[in-house]
Amino acid sequence: MNGCELEILLIITRGQTKHKNGRGITMKKLKILGLILVFNFSFSQNPEWIVYDSSNSDLPDNRIMAIVVDSLGNKWIGTIGEGLVKFDGVNWTVYNTSNSGLPHNTVTAIAVDRSGNKWIGTFGGGIAVYDGTNWRIYNTFSGSPSDFIYTIVIDSSDKKWVGTYLGGLGVLDGLYNWTYYYPGSSGLPSTDVTAIAIERLGDRWIEWIGTREGLAKFDGENWTVYNKSNSSLPNNNITAVAIDRQGNKWIGTWGGGLAKFDGVNWTVYNKSNSGLPYDEITVISIDVQGNKWIGTTLGGLAKFDGVME
Q1: What's the pTM?
Q2: How far apart are CA 179 and CA 165, in angstroms?
């Protein structure tokens, strides 16, 4: 395919999944109906798909919120309301509030640290750390900035960057040393931190932080905020951030499509000017070939090679 290569591969259905507690908290997240693994796909041949769902496997729920693969190849899967699932390729193991130390059955974020511990963000129960035997919990009573977790990213020094709903950004160094960032006391523009990506720039590490009020760049000391008022960012509601090998930032928004930022110039891709199937972006992942895999709410999953005529 010449020029702009953007392939729509899979339709993902989505509703506005709402979880509420006594404070009226509402979460909008992607609902993927089942776990789909893709093998040997090329545009010129039939794609080979293996679909796992609750009807043909021990997957307890078809609404998948998070997936991570550990160093042994195990898939750790977060669901809405049915807990955490481990899949080793043959066997399914379900961890929930009834049979384990998991504090909440809606799992929204998963990360694996250098020791192989799983850091499991939940939407209502804080963070659970699982070492394969024991569980440790971080909640608002033990240091977490919020019990409602959007994202967890672990940097090269093993610090955990935790984005939350209404709790801002928390950074955990070691077991108990938390640093908190809030609007007013820092340059963070919102208490809702929805996405985090980290890049190395020389001898420094730069955090790119997606919020409901724009994109923040943090170098450990200084904050720079990009929004519709001061940049070409198409929407302030950031839902995903990914960084490619060239250092370009790929930014997903809720309603404004996809933006690429090279540090100087912005390029916006939306339904009207590109092959992007829908302007509500839920996730961005970049593979080893540099293809951008872009999940949307109603337009499915798109693969983009990043080339425009």
Answers
A1: 0.82
A2: 16
